[in-house]
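Please decode residue identities from the backbone states below.
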């Protein structure tokens, strides 16, 4: 059975505040008027009480991290992008991306990528057979090994093919189909509105948009005006993604775009507590401060424990978890020295001791710099 970090010990890590130093439970009161005005998000037959979603990220959105994010208060946490061809040919590694704990993820969303309608339709069916309640189409990945097959952001160059894929999937499955798009292929070809209309006509239930072009990758700034334009163009829910790192960012993107939900990607890397803060802001509750000291160390240790259990192979899991430790230590004093030490350890005990020693001290984290996220590395 897949280990779930939502078990008793993890819940204790999340809730046991009374025995911790006072600074671990400090709450900040911030107003997020616009954020609170968004109604629960309707996607097909499902209602998300909170319109707060984790972006599907390759190498990040594995089951343990998704469960943490959901426990923090997110409405949805889709899988990382899954190859349609891999599901079509029943590739064991590809199918492993669908592993999940149904109790912890009752509303499983599987994101698939591919460029052919037939294989995408079969992949959607396989995802539903594995427990997916929604299927999302990746139309934003900028990595060449994805786009050269006509998938990912390459679909932005062919709205009719993208619409045909949606139609083929809808004929095969009855669950809601959603899509995550970019503003376009490059500066000269920003056609998100045309793509949005084609997808809506084909029957997608919602669209998430990251308003950068494929050419931009993650550089420059997200053009939120493109989100507003899409909101004004289609009648289905539009979910805003891109440069949302704080509650203030979320409040501003809602105010400037009129979006129906927010999707956090890089802002959650090493800082899953942003979801907890967004959930509190949406509920009108005081914002909890990110944990420090013993509580932070305890929670990272449980993420590691769940990560190892999920992958099964301890050394492989430890090596993959190094990237999370880079993100968790971002902006912290002596973080560079910690990363140099922990990157060479191949013993679980040694890694756990480094986590306890480094994160166990009360430190202030500076999130002023965006975390580095490279899909090329994540996709292996």
């Amino acid at each position: 059975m897949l280990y779930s970090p939502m078990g008793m010990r993890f819940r204790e890590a999340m809730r046991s505040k009374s025995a911790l130093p006072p600074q671990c439970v400090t709450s900040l009161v911030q107003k997020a008027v616009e954020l609170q005005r968004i109604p629960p998000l309707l996607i097909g037959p499902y209602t998300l009480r909170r319109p707060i979603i984790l972006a599907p990220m390759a190498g990040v959105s594995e089951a343990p991290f998704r469960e943490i994010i959901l426990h923090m208060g997110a409405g949805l946490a889709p899988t990382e992008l899954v190859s349609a061809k891999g599901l079509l040919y029943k590739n064991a590694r590809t199918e492993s991306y669908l592993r999940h704990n149904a109790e912890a993820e009752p509303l499983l969303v599987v994101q698939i990528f591919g460029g052919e309608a037939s294989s995408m339709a079969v992949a959607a069916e396989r995802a539903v057979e594995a427990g997916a309640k929604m299927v999302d189409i990746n139309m934003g990945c900028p990595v060449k090994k994805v786009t050269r097959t006509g998938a990912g952001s390459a679909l932005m160059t062919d709205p009719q093919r993208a619409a045909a894929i949606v139609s083929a999937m809808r004929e095969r499955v009855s669950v809601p189909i959603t899509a995550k798009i970019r503003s376009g292929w490059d500066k000269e070809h920003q056609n998100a509105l045309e793509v949005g209309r084609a997808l809506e006509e084909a029957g997608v239930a919602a669209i998430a948009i990251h308003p950068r072009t494929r050419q931009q990758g993650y550089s420059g700034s997200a053009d939120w005006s493109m989100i507003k334009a899409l909101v004004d163009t289609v009648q289905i829910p539009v979910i805003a993604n891109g440069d949302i790192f704080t509650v203030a960012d979320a409040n501003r993107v809602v105010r400037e775009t009129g979006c129906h939900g927010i999707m956090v990607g890089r802002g959650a890397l090493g800082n899953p507590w942003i979801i907890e803060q967004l959930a509190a802001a949406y509920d009108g509750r005081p914002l909890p401060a990110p944990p420090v000291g013993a509580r932070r160390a305890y929670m990272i240790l449980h993420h590691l424990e769940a990560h190892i259990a999920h992958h099964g192979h301890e050394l492989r899991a430890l090596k993959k978890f190094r990237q999370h430790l880079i993100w968790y230590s971002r902006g912290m004093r002596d973080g560079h020295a910690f990363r140099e030490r922990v990157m060479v350890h191949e013993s679980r005990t040694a890694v756990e001791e480094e986590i306890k020693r480094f994160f166990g001290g009360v430190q202030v984290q500076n999130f002023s710099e965006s975390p580095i996220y490279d899909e090329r590395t994540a996709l292996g």
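Observation: The longest helix spans residues 293-311.
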